[in-house]
Amino acid sequence: MDYSSSSDSSDEELFDIFNVENGRNFRIRNDPFEEYSESEFRDRFRFTKDTVNYLAEIIRHDIEPTTLRNRSLSVAEQLLITLRLISNIDRG
């Protein structure tokens, strides 16, 4: 018996129901290193891409996620969020 087509669609429906009932809403995150040019990146985060990568390597052992579950933020993403927050506070 071939269950692939009906099974796939019912699986998708179950996942949709589970996600709604569970209240989880995972967003697809864009990669700022890919999304922004060097000048846009510097304007947004006040550091170059190379500097952010360097800083991420320095603090990696302190804030690196211990699990890949729940789509945890990478060290670079955590650092960029912090830098963005600080840059917005300074501008406000």
Keyword list:
92 residues; mainly alpha; 5 helices
Structure description:
- This protein is an all-alpha fold and 92 residues long.
- It has one domain.
- It contains five helices and no strands.
- α4 packs across α5.
- The radius of gyration is 19 Å and the shape is globular.
Task: Describe, in short, the structure shown.
By secondary structure, the protein is mainly alpha-helical. It is built from 5 helices and no strands.
Uncertain ranges: 1-5
Radius of gyration: 19 Å
How much of the residues is beta strand, in percent? Answer: under 5%
Quaternary organization: single chain
The number of helices is 5
Report the average pLDDT across residues. 80
Morphology: globular
Q: Would you tell me the structural class of the helices and strands?
A: mainly alpha
The total domain count is: 1
N-C termini distance: 64 Å
Order of helices and strands: HHHHH
The proportion of residues forming helix, as a percent range, comes to: 55-70%
Count all strands and give the number. Answer: 0
Biggest sheet: strands, sense, closure? none
Draw up the topology in text.
Elements: H1 4-22, H2 32-35, H3 38-45, H4 49-63, H5 75-91
Helix pairs in contact: 4-5
